[in-house]
Amino acid sequence: MFRRTSLMLAVLTPIALCAGLVAAPAAAAPPVTPTPAKPTPAKPTPAKPDTAKAAEEIKKSGKLSGADHWRLVEARHPGQKRTTIAAKPFLKPKAAAGALAPVGRSQLTVVGGAGLPEGFGHGFVWDRAESEAVLVVFVNAADSLGVCIDGLQAGDQLQVMSATGVASFSEDKGNPLASGIVGLVATGANLAATVLGAPEVAPVITAAEKFAQDQFKATNAKTKKRDVYGVETGTGHKARQEGGVLVCLPEARGTFYSGNGDHKERWIKGDGVRTDDHIPAHVFGSFFPRRESDAHNTRTVQQTGQAYLVAWDWKFEDNAGFYRVVVKLKKGNGPGPIVIERKSPTTPKAKP
Q: How many domains does the chain have?
């Protein structure tokens, strides 16, 4: 009996041991530490122009380059990029009998654009398929960048047809972050100032003027109230340092400004009458509009590029109000031919 039991134990023990090995859970493998993923390098944020630096440049040199215009406008409206939309004239062009109405492709340049009146943008790009174009521009007196008109070429004409408005240039608080606006009134040939009174046009301009009053309004205008020609209301004083509008043609390559009391050489010369011989020495390719002076207010463009309408000043944050300027563009025949004078070689004189 004892031997039989021993034999059974001898046989069962190895089997039990094997079964135990099979039933026992496998030893856990050592944890594997995952290799950390390399962080994706962040894309550098493109530097935006500093509007404070632009103000300092105006104070320092009395000029801003046209190449910086739209970048500075975008800097005022973070997250808003420049786009273009079709510029639809308020007065529709008429077709000749039996012909289709011409379709222009002029554009409005917009940055942000929310809330702008219908048919207006922050800049205008002229389609040169149109022989003429009439624009209405609202210049914010607190805007140092002005309104841009693009698409001009040498030989074109730019005429200030009319200009109105009064703005204040001291002890006021307008809206320096609001850009001026421009709209296309009409296109075609032989456009006259009477287009502004057309039934289709007047309501649109009235709505835009209401927008300008709301956006560029004066809050406590008391002093230095100047009309669009730089004349102080009430006294007739011809302002030299600030007030009115400057038109910078493409050859100016940007916008010009006045100066503070330390830079009186940047003020309008003489008695303040805004003739070309009174323009400050640092200003070129530009003119000040004059009242009822068509010849003075009509200029032939000398270079291809952009024109700008900007309030005349050097410090804009205390300005308020706006000017309304009607501008006519007329396509020219392009720059004149380049004449190369050829000289015949001189025959050396024979020695005596």
A: 1
- Rounded CA-CA distance 149/121 in Å is 11
Residue 313 belongs to some domain of the structure: yes
Residue 259 in any domain: the answer is: yes
> Does residue 304 form part of some domain?
yes
The pair of structure tokens assigned to 177 is 């972050």
**For residue 182, what are the β-bridge partners?**
121, 137
Q: Is 195 domain-assigned?
A: yes
Summarised one tens digit per residue, pLDDT across range 194-217 is 898 899 999 999 999 999 998 887
Q: Which domain holds residue 246?
A: 51-93+102-330
**Amino acid in position 151:** G
Tokens of 217: 């309004």
If residue 132 lies in a helix (H) or strand (E), which one and from where to where?
strand 132-140
Judged against a pLDDT cut of 60, whether residue 33 lies above it is answered with no
DSSP states of 109-167: EEES-TTPPTTEESEEE--TTSSEEEEEEEEETT-SS-EEEEEE-TT-EEEEEEEE-EE
Q: Where are the alpha helices (DSSP H) in 62-110?
A: 69-76
What is the DSSP secondary structure assignment for residue 202, as one 8-state letter? H
Residues in contact with 4: Cβ distance below 8 Å, sequence separation at least 6, in sequence order = none
* Distance separating alpha carbons of residues 179 and 42, to the nearest angstrom: 33
pLDDT tens for residues 109-123? 999 877 899 999 999
Q: Distance between CA atoms of 238 and 291, rounded to whole angstroms?
A: 13
